[in-house]
Each structure stands twice: as C-alpha cells, then as structure tokens.
Design brief:
Strand 12, helix 13 and strand 13 form a beta-alpha-beta unit. By secondary structure, the chain is α/β, with parallel strands linked by helices. The relative contact order is 0.08. Helices cover 31% and strands 25% of the residues. Helix 9 crosses helix 10. The longest helix has 23 residues.
C-alpha cells in the first residue's frame, strides 16, 4: 500500500520541475495501476466523500454521495462481475453511459478486469458499432433509458452487430422505480450482478502492471474511421500524479466535473487526479454541462458544494460569463482552468471581469493521456500560455516542411512551429498499427499536431492546430488572429475562422459568429471591424456569417469541420449561381448542390427543366468548378 498523491512544494518555474526530477522516476512514482490508486485512496480517506451525484440541477436538490471506501467496494464488485462474464486483461468493455456514479465503476472496475472503452453516446449507431468492432469488445455497459442520446435503443441494436459482444449490462436510471419488460438472456442488471460478487478483493488475482493497457479512447471527433488510442495504466497513473504536483490539490478540495466521462479531460485530469489525492468530484446531473439548468445555477452550485476547482472548455466559460453571480458566494474557488481548445483573449478578460477569477490554461490530448503542460497556481500568463511541461516530460518546437509536417529541426525560443512531446504518459499508439505512421518522429517523440512556441522561461504558448491553419497562396494564417478580433466585438458571443476553398489562393479566410442575447449586427459591420483591427491584410476574412448556434463537439469545443463544410458549400453554391445567372436560368432549372462530405459535393441537374440548355450548363459548371481544391460531381437527376 502506498500513500495517496500529494505535492510537497509549489511549482513556479522549470527549476522547481528539475528539483522533483532529481529523484529517479521509479522512486517518485511506485504506484503501478489505477486499481492501486483506488485501493490507496480508500485506505487513506475511508469515509471521506469521493463522488457526489446531483439528481437535478437545483442548488437545493437531492444528491447521492459515495465515500472512497464505498467506491472501492463497487470497483471490486464490478471487476469481479466482468471477470465472471469472461473478461480477461486483453478484453475490451464498452461503456455507453451519461454522467452517473456507475460510470466510475465501469471505468475503474473495467480497467481492473480488462480494458475499458468509453463511448460518445451522441455518435451514430454505425459509428458505435465500428468502434466496438475495432476494440473487439466483449461486454457493453449501457444506460437503461434513451434520454436525449438514445442509449438503450442503441445498445439493443448494437448487440447483433458486434460479433465479439457476449453481454450487455443495464445500468438503471437513478429515478427508475420498476422495469416492466424482462431482459433478453444476454442482458443483465448491473446492480444485481455486482451485488452477488465479493467486494474486498479481485477474484481474478490479477497483478496489474504499468505497461498493461487500461483503456481505448476514440479520437478524431465525429467523422472518419475509428482511431482507438491505447493508454496504459502507467500513463494514466502518471497523469493523475503530475496533475496533483502542478495544481497542489489536496484532501477536502471539491471539483464540479462537467466534462463527459468518455473524454480524457473528464476521466483523467478531471476524475482520476481527484480520486488520487482525496478530492471530491461532483457530477452535475446526468446531463453534465449539456444540462442548461446546470449552467444557469452554476454559481449557486459552487456555493453549495464549496467548490475549490473550476474547469471547463472555453465555450462553457463563455456561457458561465453570461450567468450573473447574484448573491452567490464563490470565494471557495482558488483554481480556475480552461483546456481542450484555445481560449479567446476577450473571453478570458470578460470572464475575469464578471467573476473575479483568472483563468489558467493547460494543454493535453488523448495521445498524452489527457495532460502535457499546466499553468500552476500563482503563475499568470497571457492568453494562449499553457504553462510548464510536467515533471519527467519534455517539449520541443520544431520547423514544418513544405507539406506542413514536423521535421527534426528545433526552432529558437519564441518561434512558432510544431509541438513534439515525450513523457511517461505518451500513449502506446493506436490500436490499428497503420494509424501510427505519422504519430511519432525520431526516438519516440509524439507529433501533437499543435502549433506553439516556448518562451525564455520554458513555458509553452499555443497557436492553434496545424490542420486549422488557413493557407492562402502559401501564407499561413492563424485563425486565432481573426477569432480574437471578432470576439472583442460587443455583439459577438463566439467566433471561429476557417479556410474556404479558392481556385487561385487555395484557401481564403472566412468567419462564423454567434451573437450575445439581444444583440444585432450586420455582416458589413463585422467585416469593417475586422478590416480595422486585423493587421495582416491577407488574414482579413472575406465573409462573416452569423449563425443561430455554433456547431460544437459533445465536449463543447467548436467543431470546425462542420464550419469548413459550410464554407465550401457556400463557394460551390455561389459558383453555381453565377453560371446560372449567366445562362438566365429560371429557379427550377438551377443546379441543386448536395454535400457528400466535407470536401466533396454533388450538383444535380434537371434535364426536363433545362432542355437544350443542359449541355452548356454542364460545360460551364465543369469549367468553373474544376480549379477548386474540392471534388465535385455533376449528375443529371
């Protein structure tokens, strides 16, 4: 048995990191698995509250809490039930749940028995099937009601489409009173199954090593083929330990964890780090931050639970900045963090004006097991500054080649390039070996895909994703330059810039915004505002589209692929309209533009409406569309 994770002194500089690294890593971190973390914390903290689930979003609403000891009991029972169902250390256990206490049993019990595979419930049934087949999942733990994501309907349909799947474990909703229908023979009640198992040890007798695979996390948003990132127990343990060193979190601290638990931010720096040091994690209803009432009541929830830690993606911080504090006492908060996306400068300043809380940024991704750098308490950096590398980790910034790929040439301090990362929490590669071809360079350096620079004190500053760069005639445009300017406009709530395809320049910058409640502004006004405040002439957007709602991922990050598709569709539609106008076509004879995917479009022509004009229209459309860096197909329908 080892003691829980603690931090012996505050970190303020690279010298403090070096001070930790004076001791050999194996002596500093002897803990070998997430199961061992659960055992150590149960032994140290016993009846102290580990998890609190809010039944609803009311500040005075009912809650259910589990102690560290109760959590370990549930982890033992879950691992033993999975073992009895045939789960071995190299078998995957899919998890299709909303925010709930049982998610933590599925996570940590699943990792004690085999390999846990958390799933985004908002993905399509086909995508979920593809992910489970890629992981060869043997068991699926699913929510017993549909709610907004179709949990149970998807689970029942999935059963027949994943050949390796032997059992489905049904998690009853917390407010369920009776179950009317008898389940199929391969479906079991999760609570009943657990209750029949020993609760004080692993019946498998498994000795979990740090190199054992703990989890498969899927990456790549909601498009493309499955990419399952393999994380070891050692990598997850390191992330939890390093987070405690950098934040100095301690027993008695409280975090309202609104990140979904299929995402590394919610599972590792959010939950496992808290469990490893005696913190309490509050689960803000099954809907988490997607529950509007959680946002509306957030400051009173902070007061009720005396939350010390606040963490969210920038879009959630933007929503919270619009919620009046009122009489809520939030003086307990001492650590406010943003991550998972670049924080706009205007939002950071507005949030601090409204709440009095300075937002510290960190950086990490699935492939770094959730964490790579952090800004420790007391260190104030400009927006985009994501702090110091973790102890025992290394960060490099290297030049890009002509294709935008990482090279081995290190850049001087202050220059922007591709960020490479090496540390004990670098993932073990993707499950499909062919996906690893471009993931690493040199001697095990992870190619992060993020752009950034290191300052004179070794602190990292982000400049966005390499794939988000807008490349106009060979000129690299950072979309954040445009987004920061638009975010500073008093009418703008959220802003995002992407590249629209162009026959001559390759890409031209365009922007999308949503407005603050009650605001009104024209595209011409926003274009004039950017022309005045965006210094680089090539970076000034050609259009600014006002949206009713910004497309977001389920974590709350702005989903740029959808904006890129909107921008490309507008270009194709505009060219089709120009050709139609030149031929004086009536409305019913004009081409209809259909999206196939982000870079492919189909134009349908009506031969009856067009008659003899069909051939010239097709010819002129082909000439107009051919120079675009897109795939277009003209079809007679």
């Amino acid at each position: 048995m080892h003691p829980p994770f603690t931090s012996s002194f505050p970190i303020r500089s690279l010298a403090d990191i070096a001070r930790i690294e004076e001791m050999p890593f194996v002596q500093v971190l002897p803990v070998r698995s997430t199961y061992e973390i659960a055992c150590n914390s149960a032994h140290a903290f016993g009846d102290r509250v580990a998890l609190t689930f809010m039944h609803d979003a009311r500040p005075e609403g009912q809650v259910t809490s589990w102690s560290f000891a109760q959590l370990l009991v549930g982890i033992h029972q879950t691992a033993n039930a999975l073992h009895r169902l045939g789960v071995q250390p190299d078998d995957a256990v899919g998890v299709l749940l909303p925010g709930c206490l049982e998610y933590h049993l599925a996570l940590w019990g699943g990792e004690a028995a085999g390999i846990v595979q958390p799933l985004n419930p908002l993905l399509s049934e086909d995508k979920l099937v593809s992910l489970l087949n890629a992981g060869r999942a043997k068991v699926l733990i699913a929510y017993g009601r549909d709610d907004d994501a179709g949990y149970w309907t998807k689970a029942m349909r999935i059963r027949g489409r994943v050949p390796t799947l032997r059992s489905v474990l049904r998690v009853a909703p917390h407010d369920e009173e009776t179950v009317s229908a008898l389940p199929p023979e391969d479906v079991f009640d999760f609570a009943v199954l657990r209750a029949a198992e020993p609760d004080d040890h692993l019946v498998s007798g498994r000795d979990i090593g740090p190199q054992d695979i703990a989890a498969y996390f899927h990456t790549g948003g909601t498009t493309g083929s499955p990419k399952l990132a393999c994380q070891t127990h050692g990598a997850q343990v390191f992330t939890a330990w390093a987070a405690v060193q950098m934040t100095r979190n301690q027993p008695g601290d409280v975090a309202i964890n609104g990140f979904p638990l299929f995402h590394v931010a919610g599972v590792l720096p959010g939950a496992l780090a808290s469990l490893s040091c005696g913190m309490c994690n509050v689960i803000p209803t099954a809907g988490l931050f997607r529950n509007r009432d959680v946002i509306v009541n957030y400051w009173r929830l902070v007061e009720r639970f005396k939350a010390t830690n606040l963490a969210a993606v920038p879009t959630v911080l933007a929503a919270l900045a619009n919620v009046p504090l009122g009489e809520a006492d939030i003086s307990s908060v001492r650590n406010c963090r943003a991550g998972a996306a670049v924080l706009p400068m205007e939002l950071a300043e507005r949030f601090e004006r409204v709440t009095g809380l300075h937002v510290h940024e960190g950086w990490g991704m699935t492939e770094t097991t959730g964490l790579a750098t952090m800004t420790p308490p007391g260190m104030v950096l400009p927006v985009g500054g994501v702090g110091l590398p973790l102890p025992y980790s290394r960060v490099r910034v290297v030049a890009l080649n002509a294709r935008g790929d990482a090279t081995e040439r290190d850049l001087p301090t202050g220059e922007v390039g591709m960020i490479l990362y090496k540390a004990p929490n670098v993932f073990s590669g993707y499950l499909d070996a062919k996906d690893n071809a471009s993931a690493f360079v040199g001697n095990g350096w992870l190619v992060t895909g993020d752009l950034g620079r290191l300052d004179e004190e070794g602190r990292l500053h982000l400049n966005g994703r390499a794939k988000d760069l807008i490349i106009r005639s060979g000129h690299n445009i950072d979309p954040k330059v445009i987004e920061d300017v638009l975010s500073a406009h008093p009418a703008v709530h959220l802003a995002a810039a992407v590249g629209a395809p162009d026959a001559y320049a390759g890409e031209l910058p365009v922007a999308f915004v949503t407005l603050v409640a009650g605001a009104s502004v024209s595209e011409a006004e926003l274009l004039a505002f950017t022309a005045e405040h965006v210094d680089e002439t090539p970076a000034r957007p050609r259009s600014v589209v006002v949206l009713d709602a910004m497309p977001l991922t389920t974590v709350g990050k702005i989903y740029k692929p959808q904006l890129q598709q909107l921008a490309a569709h507008a270009v194709v539609d505009r060219l089709a309209k120009q050709v139609s106008d030149e031929l004086n076509l009536e409305a019913e004879a004009r081409p209809r533009v259909h999206d196939i995917d982000q870079r492919r479009f189909e134009l349908l022509l009506d031969p009856i409406a067009l008659g003899s004009r069909l051939a010239p229209l097709r010819e002129q459309l082909q000439a107009a569309l051919a120079p675009l860096p897109l795939k277009t197909e003209i079809r007679v329908a």
